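Why does residue order matter? Because the sequence determines the fold. Keep that principle in mind as you read this record.
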Amino acid sequence: MDNKAIQQTLQEHRAREWKRLIIILIFLIFAFISLVFDIATGPSMLNPSEVLEALFAPLFDIDDVSKTALVIIHDLRLPMALMALIVGAALGVGGAEIQTLLNNPMASPYTLGLAAAAGFGASLVIAFGSFGLPLMAAVPIGAFIMTMAAASVLFSFASLKQFNSSMLVLVGIALLFLFQSFLSLVQYLSSPEISQQILFWLFGSLQKANWTNLLVVFVVSAVCITLLMRDSWALTALRMGEARAASMGINLSALRFKTLILVSIMTATAISFVGVIGFIGLVSPHIARMLVGEDQRFFLPSACFIGAAFLSFSSVLSKVIIPGALFPVGIITSFVGVPFFFWIIFSRKSAC
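Structure:
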C-alpha cells in the first residue's frame, strides 16, 4: 500500500471519528434542551426562556427572574430534571456494557434480574417496616442491598472458569423470575394500601429526587462510567469474540467480573432512588450502536447521552400527556420500549 492510499485511509478514519463526535454532541444538546423543557413543564408552566435565565442567573448576575420562579426551578424541579438525566445516563451505560459483555442484544440490567431484585428489596421495607429509619431512606437502602445480593449471584457464576456469557444470561433470567415471584408474594400478603405503595414505587418516579440523593447518584455514576471508559479498548476487543480477545492477552474473567461489579453498583444506586424504570438499558445501546458502531470510545458516551435524553424526554411526556395528572415515568419508557423490543426481535429475524 503506497503513501497516498495510507493517507486516504487515515482521512476516511478521521472523518468517521468526527462524524461520531458530532452525533455525540447532538445528543448532548438534545439532552440539554430536554432538561430545559422538563424544568419548564409542571402544574405551573414556565417559559423556557425564563428557565434559561434562572439557570444562568448565578453565573451572569441576571436579576430579571422572579423569586417565585427561582424557588420553583432550583428547589423543586431542577433536582428531578437532573435526576432524570443522571439515571438515564447510568441505565444507558449499564445496558450498553451488559450487551457488550454478554454479546446479547436483549441483555440489560432489567433482564438480568437486577431491577426485579430492587423492587423486592423496596417492597420488603414498605411492607414490613423500615427498622427505625425514615421510609425515604430505608426504601433505597433495601432496594440497593437486594440488588447487590442478586448481583453477587451473577458474580459467583461469572467467576467460574467454564461459565460463558450465554449461561450468565440464563442465570439472570432465572433471577428475574425468582425475584418477581418474591415480589408478588409480598404484595399478596400486604394490605391493599401497602400493595398500592409498592406498585407506585415499581412504576418508577422522579418525584422524590432531592439534592442529597442526586449527589449520591451522580458521584457513583460518574466514578463507574469513568472506570468503564478506561477499559474501552478491552471491551471493544471483546466484541470481536471471546477467543480473539483472549488471544490479545485480555483476562476475560477479570474483565467480566469488574464490568459486572461496576454496572451492578451503578444500576443499584440509580434505581434504588427512583424505582424500576425499564427499557432505557435496552433501547439506548441499540440506537448508539446503529449510529456510532461498536468502538467503546464513542459507543459508551453515545449510550450515556441517549439514555439521559430518553429519560428526560419521558419525564416531559409524563407531565404533559394529561394536563394536571403526573404519570409515573416508568410507564412512559415502557410505552416506547415495548415496540422497540419487538422491532429488535423482527429485525434480527429478517437478518437471519
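The CA atoms of residues 321 and 327 lie 8 Å apart.
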